[in-house]
Amino acid sequence: MNPRHAQSGVTLVMSLIMLIVLTLLVVSAIRFSNINLRLAGNAQTQAESAAAAQVAVDQVLASALAGNSLSAMSAASSTISTGGASYTVAVSKPACNMTQNIDTSTLDPSIPADRPCFGLGANDQLIDANIKLTTGPSACKNQMWDIAASVGDGASGSQVSILQGASLRVGAETSCPTP
């Protein structure tokens, strides 16, 4: 028997085995790239959802700075667009946590936001035994508020909730609303 003809079948079998191995490598590479693509897409959706929730909280804070009372605001839902996607953001009713009196010794008359808090002028303050102006509660208070927003994306199933604290200066007659 000719040895040359006996080995020709082995080469075909080895070639088929190598082809199967290469095919399996290509299939696994495609699967891993699809998984990585889904992970990146979910991370992007989560980041966009968090950004949309933060925009909604910023809108509530801007409304409060424009003179609207946080205690008068109710829970609301708004649509925020971030790039190509739009998200529905649910903002809960802001909650007042604490009211803190401001001492006049901590105020600076050169800061415009502090001026209304003095109430009485410096000439109207009493002088103590050390010939220093007395300090006392000012005409303002600081209130600490919590504003919560949540976004749910039905397509990816992601849920993002944020809670942001805010400090607002209010008049001394204003107290935290009771729930």
Please characterize this protein's 3D structure.
The longest helix has 58 residues. The protein has one domain. Strand 1 and strand 2 form a beta hairpin. It has two helices and five strands, in the order H-H-E-E-E-E-E. By secondary structure, the protein is of the alpha+beta class. The relative contact order is 0.15. Strands 1, 2, 3, 4 and 5 form a five-stranded antiparallel sheet that branches.
Number of domains: 1
Uncertain segments: none
Principal-axis shape equals rod-shaped
* Mean of residue pLDDT values: 82
- Give the strand content: 25-35%
Distance between the termini: 100 Å
State the total count of DSSP E strands: 5
- Helix proportion range: 25-40%
Main sheet? Answer: 5 strands, antiparallel
Structural class: alpha+beta
Helix-strand pattern: HHEEEEE
Number of helices: 2
Radius of gyration: 33 Å
For this entry, give a set of tags.
single chain; 179 residues; alpha+beta; 5 strands
